[in-house]
Amino acid sequence: MTGDQQGFGKGCHLHLIDGSAFIFRAYHALPPLTRKSDGLPIGAVAGFCNMLFRYVEGNKGPDAPTHVAVIFDHSSKTFRNEIYPAYKANRPELPEDLRPQFPLTRDATRAFNIACIETEGYEADDIIATLSCKARDAGGRVTIISSDKDLMQLIGDGVVMFDAMKNKTIDRDEVFEKFGVAPERVVDVQALAGDSVDNVPGAPGIGIKTAALLITEYGDLETLLDRAGEIKQPKRREALVNNADLIRVSKRLVQLDCETPLDFSLESLEVLAPEPEVLLPFLTEMEFRTLTKRVADSLKVAAPVAQAAPEAEVAAPEVLPFEAAGYEAVTTAEALAEWVARIRARGYVAFDTETTSLDEMRADLVGISLAVEAGRACYIPIGHRAGGGDLFASDSLVEGQLPLAEVLAALKPVLEDPSILKIGQNMKYDAKIMARLGVTVAPIDDTMLMSYAMHGGLHNHGMDELSERYLNHRPIPIKDLIGSGKSAVTFDRVAVADAVKYAAEDADVTLRLWQLFKPRLHRAQVTTVYETLERPLIPVLAEMEMHGIQVDRDTLSRMSNAFAQKMAGLEAEIHELAGGPFNVGSPKQLGEILFDRLGVPGGVKGKTGAYATGADVLEDITTLEDSQPQGARLAARLLDWRQLSKLKSTYTDALQDHINPETGRVHTSYSIAGANTGRLASTDPNLQNIPVRSEEGRRIREAFVAPEGRVLVSLDYSQIELRILAHVAGIPALKQAFEQGHDIHAMTASEMFNVPLDQMTPEIRRQAKAINFGVIYGISGFGLARNLRIPRGEAQGFIDRYFERFPGIRAYMDDTIAFAKAHGYVQTLFGRKIHTPEINAKGPGAGFAKRAAINAPIQGTAADVIRRAMIRMPQAIAGLDAKMLLQVHDELLFEVAEADAAALTQAAKEVMEAAAAPAVHLSVPLTVEAGQGQSWSAAH
DNA sequence: CTCGTCACG
DNA sequence: GACGTACGTGACGAGT
Questions:
Q1: Could you tell me which residue ranges the DNA-directed DNA polymerase family A palm domain spans (predicted)?
Q2: pTM for this structure?
């Protein structure tokens, strides 16, 4: 549109891309990829190229830019360091695998035929500022592609920002929302508020909110500083009066330079189409196969043939397209025999089942899909039934399917053959389905768990997500076949032709993921984790889940009725107190009644505009007996009602529905790859959160029972996370206390408060206990204060004293955060990696990430320990009439014949206490406490 | 389908 | 008195 235009001027639209932001985002969004041929770190370059390509593709419309440039930081030393040496001084070191990628991102930019700009001694932000001023003055429009708040000062007439991550334009309104002032005054606010990330000092105690207030009141920074003496609040006044010079320096630090020298003209930034003969060779050299192909498609030229990679087989899945033509239905004995032969010849097979339910204990097999090479897969329909719900929908099987017995007879030898590897995505599911048909699937690999071992913390590990991420392919959604919500049908009602496309594709995707992941496991150094902590858990958990636990329906039912009665009474009382009926279960209605109608003070509205009415809020209200007797009583009744409501709806009612009609027992399902830290998660139902803390709730455990002649045995690790903390942080006093079997919380209290153990009070011990737990969670003064309901300053004092007394804890925390910042992950003692992609983010996200990073190695190591115990357990108790039923993070629950109870307790205890060895030698002992009884309540 | 709430370690 | 804050989960009912 500007081909006939000579200079840069009216009608032109300049895009300025913040290159560094692209690089860092790319680096943290992707796993640490390396170039296959020589191991060169390439992840950031790959992400950068993908982003540039997406940018180019996305900017072809009517509002396309006429000019564009990517701007980079040249070096970390700039004129700002002369003004203030500490500027950006506390920036963490660059990850070592990132720096060598910087020159490649410049090459990539040029390869896309986009101007690539950097200037010695200036930050990218200054060049962006200079260019955008020039372009605007010339009458053009400017879009800055970045979300960096430091650039927001440039926004104004003709200049906007665009946050490519959120796909959102940032204009004056957004700036006002963020800084409370117009873009012209942003530097004034930043100068006052400072910036801890860039080490801009600002005025102590003044944040953005206060700064915006002051600037709005006084007009601008200079006026404010001149008249600072008039400020009423003494702290603010002093902060400004005493730091005027520092604030002026801060302003020079945040003020972008619009006069950086440029050795090129705006015209030279004209948008040019990428030249295939430049771009494609670059991408090929980087060995970005998928991107090369996509770019070639977009440029409508043939993709260059990649250099023969040493691992040609691994390269295959990324190149082959997904096509239904490669998928077939197997409906004859001959075809099935052929597939069996193919599997035997290959030595491995991707395997997937289709069933009528997500609940493996109720699901019926509908079909099986297999794949032995990328792009070629089959589906064996077995249990498809006629009709989609019409009047004549019969239960009769669709014609032309092989009988189940025949399919099993042909496949069982393969599925059980120790020389043939069976590959699945979430194999526990398929293994359970097959186990119920008498087939033990082994040996196995599981792509979900491979991904979990490599990418834990980066993303989830469901097949659709993995396929999109790593194969650039979006599989057919199951919704397309069975619908969703109320109108959903079961898979057996899906037409065979449709099922073939869907199911064969799943096996195909699984196989390709495996081909991709298998060699990467090793490079990511998580093979041991996968092979010792993930994969062997599959049969162990499958066994536990299938066995289930006996739950007494009558007990639950009686409790439900009792709860219902009590709730009805409370409800009447609550309505009386409220002055009318309302939905007691609605936090919204409750908040309005408490704070608006009854006038209880202190109502706080959350971001959705509703009052917070959580238990802590209601508890505070119950103490207002003098000023708000009605509100206090209402809050007290409500707390009681809520407790009963929770117990009834989530436990006594819902658990009854989970009793399997065939087995009469409750079968949970554990997700191995659900929790980031390595913990298991229990679903449908969740048996890891059965009440125990309150007396009323604990009675629910009376319904979990052992059958006649058997007992439940519960074994739980004592203080396992604190012991691990004592080990990893190397705290002699804690270790000694554990070795001598002392009360760890009392010991901590004694050390901290200088109280002899024999004079310990429960209150002091309680505080020390809260601090001990706080440390594991990445303690903060605020959090501890809220937990203990003490003033913040006091809580901070506790923490300071704790760190003073146990300096190793501080060091552990600092080291862990530094490690996470440098590597993007933290590790358990057993080598499990937990990625922390947010750790280098700005804003409040970083705080979360830091605390999670501190907690993850501790919680994760404990999770690894009990996993190891569980994996060894079947062997250890093989001779006993005993079954492991449940895991609750630090507890294992067994059902055992009365005669074997003592032997089981001893054997299982030994396994648990020795579970860390030999891989890790803990410098603290692990101890296990045991209990037994007819019910879980009695065993605990 | 998201939010607030609350059950567990 | 910058922000918002203990870590990790799953299930429920209400309200959009």
A1: 697-900
A2: 0.69
